[in-house]
Amino acid sequence: MRIWLEMSIFAMALLLQPLSHAADKGGNQAGEPYDEDTYGPQAPTVWVKPVKSVIFEHRVHTMDAGLDCGSCHDDLFEMSSGAAAEKDDFTMAAIYKGKYCGSCHDGSTVYNANTRCTTCHIGVRGHQRLERAQAEKGRAK
Ligand code: HEC
Ligand code: HEC
Ligand code: HEC
């Protein structure tokens, strides 16, 4: 099922190739270039409140796991960075009740948000590493 999803996304990416610009935005191990029109923003979303820092990557969810935009937008999340962070209930309690990330990270769709904390919580050091990497990338351009 997952393989099939990945293959059809790959086929779709090939079909869209002539329409897409800039094929040099990075890529996965298989060599497929990351296309933001197909997979969403490449830069990770990083939340710093109430705790620092939680990471969300479109790549993991769209390109790797084969989810389409409609699985999250706009029922669970708005297509605007910072929207969720403004909500008072953007907390583990809500996530455990199946809101936000917990809509899937519930132990049946994918791993439960009450396990593997550090997949999402990269901490203060993780945040610093990310900022350094992004600064280096900026300099390389
Ligand atoms: C698994 C859930 C999920 C999927 C699937 C998903 N997104 Fe998102 N998206 C998010 C989250 C979470 C945010 C951050 C929202 C916030 O900060 O309130 C976001 C934010 C965005 C933003 C605004 C942030 C920015 O960096 O510009 C855009 C644009 C976006 N998504 C586009 C897409 C597109 C296009 C797709 C499909 C190719 C997609 N998303 C699929 C969860 C998802
Ligand atoms: C629509 C369903 C869905 C939603 C909503 C969702 N995820 Fe995911 N997430 C997935 C799937 C599917 C995977 C891939 C799991 C796997 O391969 O084991 C995944 C994987 C991940 C991973 C990678 C874990 C690893 O193995 O390293 C992280 C981190 C993650 N999600 C964070 C988040 C965060 C943070 C949110 C909320 C902002 C979120 N996800 C919302 C479906 C979702
Ligand atoms: C699927 C992703 C994900 C996983 C797994 C996850 N969290 Fe979170 N966590 C979030 C998000 C999103 C927020 C809200 C944004 C922020 O605080 O930066 C959050 C916020 C929090 C907060 C502050 C808000 C509150 O609820 O008090 C604490 C504490 C927390 N997490 C602890 C944990 C612990 C402990 C675990 C493991 C048992 C865990 N989290 C696993 C995504 C996750």
Task: Explain how this protein is built.
By secondary structure, the protein is mainly alpha-helical. It is 38% helix and 4% strand. It has a domain at 43-140: Alpha-Beta Complex (Cytochrome C3), CATH 3.90.10.10. The chain has helices spanning 2-16, 36-39, 58-64, 92-96, 117-120, 123-140; strands at 45-47, 54-56. Strands 1-2 form a two-stranded antiparallel ribbon. A hairpin with a 6-residue loop joins strand 1 and strand 2. The structure holds heme C (HEC) (3 copies). The site of one heme C has 20 residues, from helix 4 and helix 5. One heme C binds at residues 54, 56, 60-61, 65, 67, 71-72, 76, 100-101, 103-105, 110, 119-120.
**Helical residue percent band:** 25-40%
Bound molecules: heme C
Contiguous runs where pLDDT drops below 50 for at least 5 residues: 9-27
Distance between the first and last residues' Cα: 38 Å
Topology:
Elements: H1 2-16, H2 36-39, E1 45-47, E2 54-56, H3 58-64, H4 92-96, H5 117-120, H6 123-140
Antiparallel strand pairs: 1-2
Bound molecules: heme C (3 copies).
Condensed summary:
The protein has 141 residues and is mainly alpha-helical. Helices cover 38% and strands 4% of the residues.
Descriptors:
two-stranded antiparallel sheet; mainly alpha; 141 residues; 4% strand; single chain; Cytochrome C3; binds heme C
